[in-house]
Structure formats: C-alpha cells, structure tokens
C-alpha cells in the first residue's frame, strides 16, 4: 500500500496523518483551488503578512530595497516546478540536507495538491523549514546535489517549493503536530534560537514539559535578529517560533542564565538541560580607534535594522565592513540598500580565500558594493564626533604558512569612511561555559554531564540554520532516551 493511501495506525498520528498523507479528493482539490486562486481582500492581505509578500511601490524605495530577494511561487508556477522532479530513489538532495528532509516526497505532495501534507513532511524533519526555505544555502546543499545539474539543466527550485508549502500552513494557521501524552519529565532549554526551538518541538511531541530561557526580548535567535532583511523578516521568524511554542512550551524571555538564574538552580529543577546559547560577542580588531563613535559590530547593525523602521535606521555615507564572511556580506549589502553612497568590504586575505558563499559575493557586487582584498586595518581614524577613515596596510601570503598573511612594508594607506562595521566572527561563550560546568574544546562547547546536552552554534562553532535544527533534533532524541530509556 502506498504512503499516500494508507491509514496510519498510531493513535496520536491518526488525527493529522489521515488528512495530511492521503491524496486529496476532487472535492478537496476544488475547495483548495478556489481558496488559492481567489483574489485576497484587503483584510486577508493584512493577516497574511503583507509586508513580506507585497510588491513595494516606487514611492517606497527602502521597502523596495528590502523586498524578498526570492519572491514566492504562484500556485501554477509551483505545480510546473514540482512536475520537473524525477523523484529519485536515495535522492541526493535528501542526503545533502543536514536534516534529511524527504525532498521527493514533499515535492510529490505539492504536485498532487496536498500542501498540508507536503509541509508536514518538511516540518517533521526540520522544524525550521519556514526559515530554511528563505535563508538556507541551497546552492551548496540540496539544490547543489540535484541530479539535473549533471545534465546541464537548472536544478529543481527546492527552496521555493519548500516555501510554497510551509507558507501555506503558516498563513492558514494549520496545526500539524500535537503534544504527546505527559511523561512527567521536565526539560530546560537555554536559548530560543533554531537549535533550541527544534529540540522543543520534538520534546513536546514526546510529552515532556519544556521551559525555554531566552536572554533577548523575543525568540528566534539569529532568525529574528541576524538574517538579512531581504532574505527573511522578523515577523516570519516569530510566527515560525509561535507554531512550536503553541505545542505547550513555556517561554521566559529577557532571562540570562548565570545572571538572572543560576545554572545550578536549573539542574535542581529540571530532569535535563539543553544548552543552545549560540556564540558570543564579535571578535575585536585590537587596533587604535576601535572605540570611536561610528564603529559597530555588524550583527548589532543588522539587529538595529530588523527591530525598527528602515527610515529610522541610520547608516553612514561611506561604510567599511571588515571581514568577508556571510555576515559581512549581509552587512555591506544592507548598508548599501539603506542608502550608503559607498559600501566596501576590506579583507586581509585574497579573493580565493573569502569564506562567504560565492552567490552571496555576487549579490553584493550586483548591489554596487566594493571589495578590497589583501588589505588589513591597522588604525581607525577619527575624533569625538566620529570616524573619518580607516588606515590599512596591503598584505601578501606568508611563505610556507597557508592562510597566513604578512604586511607589505610602506604600503600604508587610508580609506575614507564614516562607519566601520566589524564582521570578524564571534567568540565562544566561555563565561557561560564556566558557569554551567561544561567544557570548551577549540572554542566549541561540549558536556560530560549526563543530564546536560549542547547543540547549535555554541557546539559547532557557527554554521547554518539547518545545521542548528539538525543538532536540536539530535539533542532532543538523546534527552528523550536518557529520560525514558527508549
């Protein structure tokens, strides 16, 4: 019997899976067609996050600059795209995804009109499926592994199809999962970012009580505060988090463990603890002038942009971003889109050493951002009123030391600017590690305590949303086994 037609036997899945997995009847399809093809009223559009989907008017240039870089598919476009899938056995796209979403299965459900079932396949494997559809580097993961690439054809637009399905359930406010029967076990999760939220979903579905502690005012982690606006907006990240919190998760925002609540108290009150605190502050340049007005962490700049109207987010006329990772690209591109006349990346190594994904670099270049390679800052110039420039020295590769560079004598020069954004990577949470009694090995957090588990950026050194989701789910499984032994 096929997956599409069988009736699931577990009682707790019967309610969802019967209408999630079955092939829609003609009546169902007719109802869905009417629902999806109708022109939404003004009230409907307000309820469906107008800001994320509308086409900004020419009179609203900032909104236009930060509109979705990859607009959603229409119903017809999704059907056409899904029909191109070869539905591979042992699909390379599924293997390439860190959460191993069954990509052919969810695409097949889109092709048959079963958007709810498609979203369930996605979100069962990856609770961050909404955000990953927008901000995941699919070019080097699922879409990069698509077999159509080997035929010199364009790969299936997996991310856009994933968004098509997950947007549908989010906009319709469909509830796909239910909490399991209470086990009497309590789990604390420190950090309400992608790893913590992913763990919370599975733990609640297994019936464990979950309390999340988050130092920020809102959940979502970097999804809410650190992803470029043209990729994903904060309201979407919060709506995604809400679908998990609605399973009965208790959330305590504005609480910093180690300051407001002792970690030892968590160990007394909970049966298990999952640490998903992310990384710490941005690394410093360690050069004179770093404390001048106009010098800021790139992540702090992005957070300002995401937590207030664009028109109230100040940006200099000439912006220099130090670093060349994906955060640096997000910062320089958004500075340009906010209205900076010049937005420049300064990187101490060569172009081939840039850690940012190639497609991210191309986006920045398309936006008119500049790249200055083999240049290393030695001093930030300015006064009490602000930055006036950044002095750099040209560099070259150090002989016999891969990745290292040395300064070229007499090559000092000044780049005029009024803003310097630092995107140098983040430091480990060493203070938290000491307070929690967990170890840091090469900057990565590990735990030898039987009831304390770690995951996400604090454990992997800083990767993608999908990696955090995978680690959150893995931690939830370990916690579940440790609590119930099965």
In DSSP terms (H or I, runs of 4 or more residues), the helix count works out at 22
Low-confidence parts: 1-23, 33-58
Structural class: alpha/beta
Total strands: the figure is 16
Provide the CATH topology of the largest domain. Answer: FAD/NAD(P)-binding domain
Quote the beta fraction: 15-25%
Overall geometry comes to globular
Number of domains: 3
| Sheet with most strands | 5 strands, parallel
End-to-end Cα distance? 29 Å
C-alpha-based Rg, rounded: 24 Å
Mean pLDDT: 90
Strand order of the largest sheet: 3-2-1-4-16
Observed structural traits:
486 residues; alpha/beta; Fumarate Reductase Iron-sulfur Protein, Chain B, domain 2; FAD/NAD(P)-binding domain; 3 domains; 22 helices
Overview of the structural elements:
It is a single chain. With 486 residues, the protein is of the alpha/beta class. It has 3 domains: 11-38 and 69-171, Alpha-helical ferredoxin (Fumarate Reductase Iron-sulfur Protein, Chain B, domain 2), CATH 1.10.1060.10; 186-280 and 427-484, FAD/NAD(P)-binding domain, CATH 3.50.50; 295-422, 3-Layer(bba) Sandwich (FAD/NAD(P)-binding domain), CATH 3.50.50. Helices cover 40% and strands 16% of the residues. The chain contains 22 helices and 16 strands. The protein has helices spanning 11-21, 26-37, 42-47, 50-53, 61-65, 75-82, 92-96, 103-111, 115-125, 129-135, 142-145, 158-171, 194-205, 222-225, 234-245, 263-269, 298-306, 326-338, 358-366, 430-436, 457-460, 465-484, and strands at residues 186-190, 209-214, 250-253, 272-275, 295-297, 318-322, 342-346, 370-372, 375-383, 386-397, 405-407, 413-416, 419-422, 439-441, 444-446, 452-454. It has a 5-stranded parallel β-sheet, with helices on both faces. Helix 8 (103-111) runs antiparallel to helix 9 (115-125), helix 13 runs parallel beside helix 22 (465-484) and helix 18 (326-338) runs parallel beside helix 19. The longest helix has 20 residues, at 465-484. The chain is globular. The relative contact order is 0.12.
